[in-house]
Amino acid sequence: MRFDIKTANHNTTWPEILAMWKAADDIEIFHTGWLFDHFYPIASPSQQDPDPSGPCLEGWMLLSALARETSRLRLGTLVTGIHYRHPAVLANMVTTADIVSGGRLELGLGAGWNEDESHAYGIELGSLTERFDRFEEACQVIGSLLSKETTTFSGRYYTVTDAYCEPKGPQLPHPPILIGGKGEKRTLPVVARYAQHWNFPNGTPTEFAHKRDVLHAYCEDLGRAPSEILTSAHVWLASGTPNGISRLIDEIAAFSAAGLDAAVIYLPLPLDPKLLTPLAEALADID
């Protein structure tokens, strides 16, 4: 089983995040480090009612900085809200980050959901239908720009004409695309068509197994092997105490029994980076 870490960008500082990522970079069992893509603090198990005026570091700038401060961890945002940036702009950010990281980038994408920050910044979010229509267009534009010499696309939301995105990154045809979410009508069909990695954002192992089966059915309809898509789920480390680690291990073991490929371990900050060592030792015992 694969083990990733995730650190929230909110209510923390650059030195705290840097210390955690550098510690994880030195522990081989941790495969990928993830950030989120928000501008306001968001709800979490430790803060259900976040303060929108609290500190929140921008995810893609932070990601590029961490790429230069680490050497082994793969890295990405889980997930990038597609409505925040034009897909052609995002594609150029992706290739640059892939180059800067030496080919370690994982591209997390999502349709967007945060109404508060979108409204505050005057960024159109739209209805659920509009979000996913726009998301599907963006996936097509980004995938083409990252893999083809030129791209021409005309849709309701995006138009690009004989567009270049150069230079290409070292991962060909493009970095692995992760799509997060569990909606059966819109999200999972998009995962089946465009993604190499699906993230189950929250829920039980039983619910995960059901959603995975739905995803696999969509893959089969498209003639795609379900094994081409890695599956992951968020799990939260409530604290760095032995009890907190023990509860986390039990949850990951239950997901493993349900057939999960990778656990994305959400780390609370501040957290002593030294606590990653006993966590890694406990993870090594999971089959």
Strands, helices and their partners?
Blueprint lengths: L1 E6 L6 H12 L4 E6 L23 H11 L4 E4 L2 E2 L5 H14 L4 E6 L4 H7 L6 H20 L3 E4 L4 E5 L13 E4 L6 H8 L2 E4 L4 H18 L7 E7 L5 H16 L4 E6 L8 H8 L4
Parallel strand pairs: 1-2, 1-11, 2-3, 3-5, 4-5, 5-8, 8-9, 9-10, 10-11
Antiparallel strand pairs: 6-7
Organism: Mycobacteroides saopaulense
Protein name: LLM class F420-dependent oxidoreductase
GO molecular function: alkanesulfonate monooxygenase activity
Q: Could you describe the 3D structure shown?
A:
The mean pLDDT is 95. This protein has helices at residues 14-25, 59-69, 87-100, 115-121, 128-147, 187-194, 205-222, 242-257, 276-283, and strands at residues 2-7, 30-35, 74-77, 80-81, 105-110, 151-154, 159-163, 177-180, 197-200, 230-236, 262-267. It has a single domain, classed as Luciferase-like domain (TIM Barrel), CATH 3.20.20. It is 40% helix and 19% strand. The longest helix is centred in the middle third of the chain and has 20 residues, at 128-147. By secondary structure, the protein is an alpha/beta fold. A hairpin with a 4-residue loop joins strand 6 and strand 7. Helix 3 (87-100) crosses helix 5 and helix 6 crosses helix 7 (205-222).
Q: Which structural class should the secondary elements be placed in?
A: alpha/beta
The strand count comes to 11
Could you tell me how far the N terminus lies from the C terminus, measured between alpha carbons in angstroms? 7 Å
Binned strand content: 15-25%
Task: Supply the CATH class.
Answer: Alpha Beta
| Count of the separate structural domains | 1
Strand order of the largest sheet: 1-2-3-5-8-9-10-11
Shape field = globular
- CATH topology group: TIM Barrel
Q: Can you tell me the CATH superfamily?
A: Luciferase-like domain
Helix content bin? 25-40%
Biggest sheet layout: 8 strands, parallel, barrel
Output the number of helix runs: 9
Q: What CATH architecture do you see? A: Alpha-Beta Barrel
Overall pLDDT level: 95
Radius of gyration: 18 Å
Provide the low-confidence segments as ranges.
Answer: none
Question: In sequence order, what are the helices and strands, one letter per element?
Answer: EHEHEEHEHHEEEHEHEHEH
